[in-house]
Write the structure tokens for this entry.
Amino acid sequence: RAYLPHQFVWIPYNGLFFALLGRLSLFEQEVGMPTNSFAVGVANTAACAAVAGWVTTPIDVIKTRVQVSGANPELFDFEGPLDCAVKLVRREGPRALFSGAVGRMMYLAPNMAIFIPVYEKLKSLVS
């Protein structure tokens, strides 16, 4: 039941994350920065993960509220994602769409900052 809503969060996140990381890598190549530095890879990945996490937080908030409303309709009376977004903004204001954004960024940035550079390093060692 949660597979499809989960994909509506992570597909945009991953698309944005890898697009940002690719653009940042191209920019660094254009200005002559070293492209094989593990530390730079960690910093780049963390920054891109934080930005992508922040941008996609509203989708995650709406997904979570809709899922909770399915389990506890007395708490939230949403009829779907669009209804959830409208009622959330009316009742709690636009800032509610970004509730939990800092926590989400604090989870995603170090997670991806470890995963992607280590993966790239291992890939270069194997090939």
Q: What stands out?
A: The two ends are 40 Å apart (CA to CA). Residues 3 and 9 are 10 Å apart (CA to CA). DSSP finds five helices and no strands in the chain. The chain has a mean pLDDT of 93.
